[in-house]
Specification:
single chain, alpha/beta, five-stranded parallel β-sheet, globular
Length: 450
């Protein structure tokens, strides 16, 4: 082994035949300790580059946002294992973005298996061995959960019904196979999330933050690592929002604890009917043709989007390992992926912005206006934003993404990483105010970060 080359923490690297197995996922998620080799991170980044490029090309108009390509931020949240909130009018592809992203990572929706249903129906009394065997089988196929919520949605629809035989014995257990907290469910997309009842949202509070939930009489960890939610408007904005975004009010105050679980809010733009260049088709023209083409594919082949490539396909473990590698060595000041000097400069500008926004928000860390909250600053939010900025730096470093052997480390987060602060708004007014507030600060940072 070359001098100063860290030892492999486990034998199954990104090119191993078992790389996409759930066993490797568990090792990456902390079952095995040890340093991640830089070459492994480069290999995973090269695979994820194809997902990033495919996401950029799949939807028209999502590159033209104040934050740059919006799909990059969705992917950065996944690498950082942070929740992502998509906001926008109906028909702007919020659901499509989330679900297709999961599919391109090799995740499948829960499947209906008649044999399993028959087994379940035949159980006259609770059988723990059958339950454990079923859970193990479920974990072997890593999948995603997709559900549309409404004000009438019940907790059982998302978390599963209660097992009555165990309840008689005083143990509250939910039958959650294939649901949000089910074994093997790595990613989730909840549509119209703010329309859900308070009972559903309160149950989601712990899951979306600590990734744990109440089952078997205590708090247990879920397999969930990616969580994307979508809404036509912010809390409290039903029928009162501007451009599909809510205005605030009593409902907003009630739901703000849940909203705060999403460190950044991404507004999905509507395709424009005008073109910036004379003679060029507008975004609306091109978006219509793309949508029509997908509908043709669905009618003729049953699929809107092409399947992931069979040769060297990207997978969930590429995302998990890249997230772990991004955090490696930060505490000791010896980051694996980033140049220490540039990371130090970025950290200084990051905290300067955070202190300025907190000073404006006051001692409570929340800026209040018209009985609503315009933005909040807290250690938890700063931790999340910093991780997302690190992930964004990886996705924007073309040399590192090339996967060339011996390529240099990621240069480090730049001004685009600081742009995350302009996405912590809680209302349309705060969105404009934040961007105006950060404009001069980002220009100063650009001198140091390029």
């Amino acid at each position: 082994m070359a001098k100063n080359q860290p030892a492999h923490p486990w034998p199954e690297g990104p090119d191993h035949e078992d790389w996409r197995s759930v066993r490797v996922s568990q090792k990456i998620l902390g079952e095995v300790q040890g340093p991640i080799p830089l070459a492994w991170a480069q290999r995973c980044a090269a695979r994820l580059r194809r997902v990033r490029d495919r996401m950029r090309q799949a939807w028209v108009g999502l590159d033209d946002t104040p934050l740059g390509p919006m799909t990059d931020w969705v992917m950065a949240c996944a690498i950082a294992r942070e929740n992502c909130l998509l906001l926008g009018r109906p028909g702007v592809a919020k659901s499509e973005i989330a679900v297709q992203f999961f599919k391109w990572l090799g995740l499948a929706p829960p499947r209906i298996d008649p044999e399993k249903l028959s087994e379940l129906a035949s159980q006259k009394v609770f059988d723990l061995s059958w339950w454990e065997e079923r859970a193990q089988r479920e974990r072997e196929e890593q999948k995603y959960f997709h559900y549309l919520l409404s004000r009438f949605s019940q907790v059982e629809e998302v978390f599963g019904p209660i097992e009555l035989e165990l309840l008689k014995k005083g143990v509250l257990t939910r039958v959650n196979f294939g649901l949000l907290t089910g074994p093997g469910v790595r990613a989730a997309f909840l549509d119209e999330v703010f329309k859900a009842s308070s009972s559903v949202l309160n149950t989601l509070l712990t899951l979306t933050q600590e990734r744990t939930y109440f089952n078997w009489g205590g708090m247990v960890p879920s397999d969930l690592v990616m969580f994307i939610a979508a809404s036509n408007e912010m809390p409290g904005g039903f029928a009162t929002g501007t451009a599909g975004l809510g205005a605030g009010g009593e409902d907003f105050q009630t739901l703000h604890a849940f909203l705060d679980r999403f460190p950044i809010r991404l507004e999905v733009p509507t395709a424009s009917g005008t073109s910036h260049l004379p003679g060029e088709p507008s975004n609306l023209d091109r978006a219509f043709l793309v949508a029509l083409g997908r509908e043709e594919n669905r009618f003729t082949s049953g699929r809107n989007f092409p399947d992931p490539p069979e040769e060297d396909p990207p997978g969930i473990n590429d995302v998990l390992l890249l997230g772990r590698a991004a955090m490696q060595g930060l505490q000791e000041g010896t980051p694996l992926l980033f140049e220490p000097e540039r990371l130090e400069v970025f950290h200084r500008h990051f905290m300067d912005i955070a202190r300025g926004l907190q000073a404006e928000a006051g001692t409570q860390g929340a800026l209040l206006e018209h009985e609503g909250i315009t933005w909040t600053i807290s250690p938890r939010k700063l931790r999340s934003l910093f991780k997302i900025a690190l992930a964004m730096a990886i996705l924007r470093d073309e040399e590192f993404l090339s996967g060339e052997p011996g390529a240099a480390r990621v240069r480090g987060p730049g001004v685009d990483g600081l742009e995350a602060f302009s996405a912590i708004w809680d209302s349309p007014a705060a969105q404009r105010r934040l961007r105006s507030r950060l404009e001069s600060t980002l220009k100063r940072a650009e001198k140091d970060l390029g």
